[in-house]
Amino acid sequence: MILVIAEQRDGKLNRATWETIVGAQQLAKASGAPITVLVPGTHAAGVGAELAAAQVAEVVTVEHAALEPYTPDGFTAALQAVIGQLSPAHVLLPHTYQTRDFAPKLAARLDRALVTDVTAIKTVGSDTAFVRPMFQGKLTADIVPQGPGPHFITFQIGAYRVDQVAKGAAAAPVRALEVAVDAAAIRQKPEAPFQQARQAVDLSQAERIVSVGRGIKEQTNIALAQQLAEALGAEIAASRPICDAGWLPMERQVGSSGQTVAPKLYLALGISGAIQHLVGMKGANTVVAINKDPDAPIFEIADYGIVGDLFEIVPAMIAALKA
Amino acid sequence: MAVVAFWLLFVAFVGAFAGQVARRVQLIAIAPNTFSFDNLGFRVNRFLVDVVFQARTIRERPIAGIAHAFVFWGFVAFGGYTLTEFLRGLGIVDLTHTTWFTAYRLALTPFAVAVLGGILFLLIRRAFVRPVGLGTKVSIESIVIALFIATLMVTYLLTFRMEEGTMAEQVNWWVHMLVILAFMALIPASKHFHLVVSPITVLLKSPELGNLPNLDFEKEQVGLETVKDLGSKSVLDAFTCVECGRCQVNCPAWGAGKELNPKTIILQTKDALLAGGRDRKLGEIYSEKVLWQCTTCGACENQCPVGIEHLPVLIGSRRGLVSNGDAPDYLGAMYNNLERRSNIWGLGYDQRTKFVQSSGLETFDAAKHDVLVWLGCAGSFDADFQKSLRSLFAILRAKEVRFGVLAKERCNGDPAKRTGNEYMFQELANGNIEDLKASGVKKILTSCPHCVKTIGDDYRKFGYEVEIVHTSVYVEELLRQSSAALSGPRETVTYHDPCYLGRYAGKVDEPRNLLTRFGADIVEPERNRDNPYCCGAGGGLLFADKEEEPGTRISDVRFKQLQATGANTVVTACPFCSIMLKGAQASAQADTQFVDLMTYVNGKLQPRA
């Protein structure tokens, strides 16, 4: 049996759990083992119902006051008890900060193998091997965990795509499991979770960004970029001078003195590409630049460059997108 | 009877003086020793120029400076007179009737007039003109001291109008002597203590601007955390400060409306030392926020007439904060970049390789090449600055200079060093030193003034000596014969001195010579040559350019100063100045052109179409 440990906080599921279920489904295909998803915490029921949509054998919730807020001692004790009851062959977890905190402790407590930050599963001869990066990603290793089960496997965030999860014909059964946890044995006293000062606009999560620079010339022309952003389903952003001029709010500034973004598509309109701007968007997958100046530094890092007048090109793009 | 009374007064006042001095000497003595007399020739020379000839006092404020020089020279001249009168008053020996004293006394009259004129001028300036650097409220103590000095001169001059032995003469003598005694008792606790200590402080000031000895991790040195960590020179500095405010008015952070005021830092040090509490955290005394506002431009330290070194305290305290994990977020990101990618941008070195290949650069070989060109973080990654380097390469090739580059560079470590991340600095520096040593290079050429300072000065502290020259200096010499062919109209430009070139390296004439020779008429901006106004990038602040900071951006202030020259072209000689000022220009939506010095020169060298 494959046990997936879901992660949630205050009833909100961490989406990386879905990725781990995809990994479990791939592992199950090879071994034919049934999948059980375990939801620990005080708000487990709702999350359990949500996860029951996946093609799994069952969903088990463990509600216990000692599990929220999270403590490594509470989790280790509860999960040790659950694993004792269910005796899985594999325990799969998303490689989140929380997992990084308790999984080594749990594996060591049970004296079982733990493979972390796994990006893929493959078959090597008759064995199932787990692929993980080494030496800061310079090499990858195929690891076959040794010794008695369960083997603990944590999956790198993004190793599997959420949209590849197989959904069941009907919702999987959800049952609650009782475990005993000695709350007095928990040594950690967690404080309220750290809240980073929240930006009104979080561009770092945007999948597509249309970003404007001085080439936009007039404040009224921002509307044109906004239309393109709407057509693309993109967020609008800008380089420093645009925000300094108040044409767009400061929280939409990308660069060393603004936000750092990593969208799949970054469309730079009339941005010359000063290095302080580039360092804020260097993580973008695909950069498309439109600029009149063929020597603009933005073309050094653009995947697609269009040398020309954005006031001709952008309306044509909008028209094409709407067609 | 009079002698006994004078003795009693003498013992009381001198005792008060000595007691206060002893307290300060003791605080210096228990501080970690940072005194040094290395490079003694330079120190003696600076002593002559700055103390004896008062050059640094006069340079920035000529009228007040000359008034001060009059008072200072007068004080020195009166030394023998005062001593002789004390010997007489104490009944030890009366030399006042010797011929030499009569002549000496007479010779003092012009000095007395100069002192009187000087001190009255300074008194009026302080009490009524009240320049901003002197503080917001008038110091009563300074007024008293000024009146004391005036009284001394008046009582001296009155002796020529009085018969010896008369009542008036006696009273006059006693007034003169009592003022001297009261003066002595007053000075140790006041800014007038500089009279006693500033000559020593100037002599002990490091010949190197912004001298930051390496931390020794073997000895578990982590920088300045508490009052007791302050070095002996910093303690002496605190007691030397004359509160003239030259550091304040020249500080770009203060000028842009930030909280940092270098004078306040020194006075806070003094107060903290005298208050005891040696375990108080410096981050609390100065406030952490203030410590992160320094661009390390060096203006405070360089303009100080009494030998104070601000940077060891500011950066030393940053070291203490970084050692405790208290660096601001933007620095955390930069440190990550330095750690993972060895450059400030966090970009991959394939970009540098791409530039090296597309520019046809060879890997440095000591047998084949004359100089090594150090690209630096900007040259390796900033496409805009790479245009300047291509211009440099064209000039070098035209003059058949054989040059190469290292196969791999790391950041020289300047942003780590000057933000107090000494550990990271040493990691980067040691790696680079190893590569530079292995290359066998004797002479390095770079367009980045920060690299000049760090590789030139800071690497020497690891025992690595190499000649490193800024391209403006090298190319100026290289092209001495090349200007004859030039024709065409002259162009009006303004030149922005980078702090690390103009102030730190003192290279102010070479860039100007190049520009003038190649057809430029330079209009100087406010704050130029060896006292430029910072662009705002130094000390890790390149990445701190946030809106929520108080005041305006330093780069905006500087850009306005450059704009005010009326020149439409600004020539820069540092990649970081260029980045900052171009940012300010873009935000101001101004049409000012920026051009790097090398691009300017190369452009003029190209045959006209």
Describe this structure in words.
The complex is a heterodimer of chains A (323) and B (609). Chain A has two domains: 2-185, 3-Layer(aba) Sandwich (Rossmann fold), CATH 3.40.50; 203-322, Rossmann fold. Chain A is 29% helix and 24% strand. Chain A has nine helices and 17 strands. In chain A, the strands form four sheets. A seven-stranded parallel beta sheet of chain A has the order 7-11-6-1-4-5-12, sandwiched between helices. Chain A has a five-stranded parallel beta sheet with strand order 14-13-15-16-17. A three-stranded antiparallel beta sheet of chain A has the order 8-9-10. The mean pLDDT of chain A is 92. By secondary structure, chain B is mainly α. Chain B folds into four domains: 2-204, Fumarate Reductase Cytochrome B subunit (Up-down Bundle), CATH 1.20.950; 217-329, Fumarate Reductase Iron-sulfur Protein, Chain B, domain 2 (Orthogonal Bundle); 341-477, 3-Layer(aba) Sandwich (Rossmann fold), CATH 3.40.50; 483-605, Rossmann fold (3-Layer(aba) Sandwich). In chain B, 57% of the residues lie in helices and 5% in strands. In chain B, strands 2-1-3-4 form a four-stranded parallel beta sheet. In chain B, strands 6-5-7-8 form a four-stranded parallel beta sheet. The model of chain B has no long low-confidence stretch (mean pLDDT 94). Chain A binds chain B through residues 136, 214, 239-241, 244-245, 250, 256-257, 260, 273-276, 278-279, 282, 295, 297, 300, and chain B through 330, 333, 340, 345-347, 351, 378, 381-385, 387, 542-547, 579, 582-583, 586-587, 589.
Task: Report low-confidence residues of chain A grouped into runs of 5 or more.
Answer: none
Helix content of chain A: 25-40%
Can you tell me the CATH topology of the largest domain in chain A? Rossmann fold
Sheet with most strands of chain B:
4 strands, parallel
Sequence of secondary-structure elements of chain A: EEEHEHEHEHEEEEEEEHEHEHEHEH
Distance between the termini of chain B: 97 Å
Helix content of chain B: 55-70%
CATH class identity of the largest domain in chain B: Mainly Alpha
Globally, the shape of chain B reads elongated
Question: What is the end-to-end distance of chain A?
Answer: 51 Å
Low-confidence sequence ranges of chain B: none
Mean of pLDDT of chain A: 92
| Count of extended strands of chain B | 8
Under the CATH scheme, the architecture of the largest domain in chain A is 3-Layer(aba) Sandwich
Helical/strand content category of chain B: mainly alpha
Class from secondary-structure proportions of chain A: alpha/beta
